[in-house]
Write a structure and sequence with these properties.
With 315 residues, this protein is of the alpha/beta class. It is built from 9 helices and 9 strands. Helix 6 links the parallel strand 4 and strand 5. Bound molecules: xanthosine-5'-monophosphate. The site of xanthosine-5'-monophosphate has 18 residues, from helix 6.
Length: 315
């Protein structure tokens, strides 16, 4: 794909051919699904309804941010509060593949309900090439089951339409810029959200811990970018580990968990390099995270591993 205008024209033509009635569009506020939703809106107008699911696994302030993002993009959408559905599906689940399968299934159940309300049987998704490549298949090993590919239950009642299937992330960004999407350089955020950033069992409390740590990582990176101390990374986030580790506050021993900070540079997420963050930035993150989560998190680690051999996310 080297001509975004030609891609958009062809995608609109195909969407009109594939969707003769109405459709819903899975819209998370991320760049992929926003582009898919805008294409659907251009191709189908009122026959497409964007559905934004609050899974309870979103980052601090994200619901408000995404709502603002859709408003700025003139994209009609509907917010579906579904945190209880997701926490119930994930209660105590620790296995990363099982998490993705349950999240995929929970999304589909929510979308089926919304599709029934909108009287349609089509679901447009912003699936891109790395999602299905890494999800494996006949000839490929499964690196991780992306929730929107391998995580989809076989008995789903909706027919999938995926206009971005053949694109890589940098190509999606080129299309986004062409469509005038604000913040086309926004960092990617996985559909399963903070669930794959909580290593080990999912509980509301552990999701809240990683949400607090993640907000600090984002603030500190954005501050360093604004001060021109570093270039804008590809992704920057926190992961909560289930290890127990000893710390001390005042005279008291604390037995808490550990947070990993992950900051990577990449072009298309297929490979990535751990960024050499200046030490003062790391120290500030560590001080703020252990203070904000005093008693719960006693150690902050920096992940220096490239992809490969690691992946960008921990799960
Ligand atoms: P990995 O961790 O495989 O990530 O190196 C590559 C890119 O994909 C994102 N990612 C996901 N996105 N559903 C998504 O929508 C998922 O299950 C998922 N897993 C990883 C990750 O954030 C990175 O940008």
């Amino acid at each position: 794909m080297n001509d975004p205008a030609a891609f958009v024209e062809e995608a609109i033509r195909r969407l009109r051919a594939d969707v003769t009635g109405r459709t819903i569009v899975a819209a998370s506020g991320g760049i992929d699904s926003t582009v898919a939703a805008l294409l659907a809106h251009q191709a189908l107008g009122e026959r497409a309804r964007a559905i934004f699911v609050d899974t309870g696994m979103l980052r601090a302030g994200e619901v408000e941010q995404v709502a603002g993002f859709f408003a700025a993009s003139h994209l009609p959408y509907q917010l579906v509060p579904a945190a209880d559905v997701f926490f119930e599906a994930l209660a105590g689940v620790a296995d990363p593949e099982e998490k993705r399968r349950r999240i995929g299934a929970a999304f589909v159940r929510v979308f089926e309900t919304e599709a029934d309300k909108f009287h349609c049987d089509r679901l447009i998704q912003g699936t891109i090439a790395p999602d299905w490549i890494e999800s494996g298949g006949a000839l490929r090993d499964t690196i991780k089951t992306h929730h929107n590919v391998g995580g989809i239950p076989k008995d789903m009642r909706l027919t999938l339409v995926e206009p971005l299937r053949d694109l890589y992330k940098d190509e999606v960004r080129a299309v986004a810029r062409h469509l005038g999407v604000p913040e086309a350089e926004r960092q990617p955020f996985p559909g399963p959200g903070l669930a794959v950033r909580v290593n080990g069992p999912i509980t509301r409390e552990r999701v809240e811990r990683v949400r607090v740590a993640n907000a600090i990582v984002e603030e500190e990176v954005q501050r360093a970018v604004a001060a021109k101390e570093i270039a804008r990374p590809w992704q920057y986030f926190a992961v909560l580990l289930p290890v127990r580790t000893v710390g001390v506050t005042g005279d008291n021993r604390v037995h808490g968990e550990a947070v990993v900070v992950r900051v990577v540079e990449s072009v298309d997420a297929m490979t990535a390099t751990a960024m050499a963050l200046p030490r003062p930035v790391l120290s500030r993150m560590s001080e703020r995270i252990t203070r904000a989560l005093a008693g719960a998190v006693v150690r902050v680690l920096y992940d220096v591993t490239d992809k490969p051999p690691a992946t960008i996310e921990w799960e």
